[in-house]
Automatic annotation (TrEMBL):
PANTHER family: PROTEIN YCEI. Residues 40-204 form the Lipid/polyisoprenoid-binding YceI-like domain. This is Polyisoprenoid-binding protein. The keyword Kinase does not apply. Residues 1-25 form the signal peptide. Keywords: Signal.
Amino acid sequence: MTRHHFAASALAAMTVFCAVSHATAQQVSTPDPSAVRAGTYRVEPYHTQVGFTLSHMGFSNFSGFFNGVSGSLKIDPAHLSATNLDVTIPVQSVDTTVPKLDGELKSAQWFDASRFPNATFKSTRIVQTSASTADITGNLSLHGVTRPVTLKARLVGSGTNPLDKMFTVGFEATGTIVRSQFGVKQYVPLVGDEVTLTIAGAFELQQ
């Protein structure tokens, strides 16, 4: 077999593998909103992340994550406005992939994690905007300050996880906050005041 034929065969095999993997993923979950089961869910922490992005002196848009999220989601697709979301985010989990910066962000000049170890979000109003999207307004408590924030959420999919056999529903959400309004003012405006939130949320049905 020539090198050209070997490369072509490898590429074909990879294409088939990706197609099979994609098909398998589609069989596991469905984006159909009618498939979501009503009930009380808990956060599945291993696949839930809260990402943030802000300008670094106008040179780059720098990002980081919080993980270890916990909390609950009560949802009934037939009465979406009655949905209740309550999550807790450990500030100590901040991860920018730069250990020195992580330590700085936990300090009193930034999040002051020793005094304010958790951020929380508790929904107060849900407005459905399409079959699979909704605006979630709630109270975000961060750095000892509580302010209303609206997240734009989209259903990613739901179904039974083949590994742990738990019925799981996943969403993605985005929102924007002004960090100085929460008392996190270090280097404003040199480092961006407006922070974009990007959330990947997975929830497992409990009852």
